[in-house]
Specification:
By secondary structure, this protein is mainly α. It has a single domain, classed as MetI-like (MetI-like fold, Orthogonal Bundle). It has 13 helices and 2 strands. The chain has a two-stranded antiparallel ribbon with strand order 1-2. A hairpin with a 7-residue loop joins strand 1 and strand 2. Helix 3 packs across helix 9. The radius of gyration is 24 Å and the shape is flat. This is Raffinose/stachyose/melibiose transport system permease protein. InterPro entries: ABC_transporter_permease, MetI-like, MetI-like_sf. Keywords: Cell membrane, Membrane, Transmembrane, Transmembrane helix, Transport. Pfam families: BPD_transp_1 (PF00528).
């Protein structure tokens, strides 16, 4: 068989094996995205006949202050994820692998517990902890003599969003610790030994060796954190449902309310489509920003 014939045979075989995945992508990704884009051109309550409004929903979205404030909170969640999940997880992973390796497995287990528990359960647990009357947070503040700091954490506009961000950081930190632990262990021991000979301490080795050597993992985990932050829903929905008065609203909870509470399906589809486009754009920007010098 000629080289061209062999290549065609291999291509057909590859296409045959890829066809189930391509079919799933078309059914569960491409079609919903296309349908959301089509539905965004209509005003529809989910029951009656759709009314074509053209760019009406897009113009409404552009002037919707609740949407833009919700998007701003998503961006703040993404920023906090980079700092309190990705970077902190890398520092913790370095400590578990390089500083306290004897207790690394035990601590890693405790960090992973929130990852293994349902987000709904975590949200309900933290609602109990934030309870203004018998919650553990206010009880701890009272025990420490800080009664003036006690709050109705999820019921006050100035603390609700911060309280939600704390829960998110606690929930997802363990996942990134696990991913970075594997990356840090892959760094050759000889590199650290050479640094020790030159007199480098743990702080210098972390910033001068570990971070550059695991930069691909940093980039990948940052991308995961950004995407997850821009589409976060469960914890916000359980903890505050976007309240009070939209103080902790994010794009996904606003979309849910428009679609399933106000029955504005066309406008909800517009929000979802915009969320997808903005998430893809943010992911591309982060991927390009974190690219190594010299990478294509």
């Amino acid at each position: 068989m000629s080289t061209d014939g062999l290549a065609k045979t291999h291509n057909r075989a590859a296409l045959l094996f890829l066809s189930p995945a391509l079919l799933l992508i078309c059914v569960f990704v491409a079609y919903p995205v296309a349908y959301a884009g089509w539905l965004s051109l209509f005003q529809w309550d989910g029951a009656s006949a759709p009314i074509f409004v053209g760019a009406g929903n897009i113009l409404r979205l552009a002037a919707d202050s609740v949407f833009w404030s919700s998007l701003g909170r998503n961006l703040l969640v993404a920023l906090s994820a980079i700092v309190f999940q990705v970077f902190l997880a890398l520092a913790i992973a370095y400590c578990l692998v390089r500083i306290v390796p004897a207790f690394g497995r035990i601590f890693l287990f405790f960090y992973l517990v929130p990852v293994m528990v349902s987000e709904i359960c975590i949200g309900l647990l933290w609602r109990f902890m934030y309870n203004p009357y018998f919650g553990l947070v206010n009880a701890a503040l009272k025990l420490a003599g800080l009664d003036s700091l006690k709050r109705g954490w999820l019921g006050e506009s100035d603390t609700a969003f911060t309280a939600v961000v704390v829960v998110m950081s606690f929930t997802y930190l363990g996942l990134y610790v696990l991913l970075f632990t594997s990356a840090v262990r892959s760094v050759p021991e000889s590199v650290y030994e050479a640094a020790e000979i030159d007199g480098a301490g743990d702080f210098r080795k972390f910033f001068s060796i570990t971070i550059p050597m695991v930069w691909d993992a940093v980039r990948a985990n940052s991308l995961l954190a950004i995407i997850g932050s821009l589409k976060t829903f469960s914890l916000v929905f359980v903890l505050t449902n976007g309240g009070p008065s939209h103080a902790s609203e994010v794009v996904s909870t606003y979309l849910y309310k428009m679609g399933f509470s106000s029955f504005q399906m066309g406008y909800a589809a517009t929000i979802g489509f915009a969320q997808m486009v903005l998430t893809a754009l943010a992911a591309w920007i982060v991927f390009r920003f974190l690219k190594r010098k010299g990478d294509a």
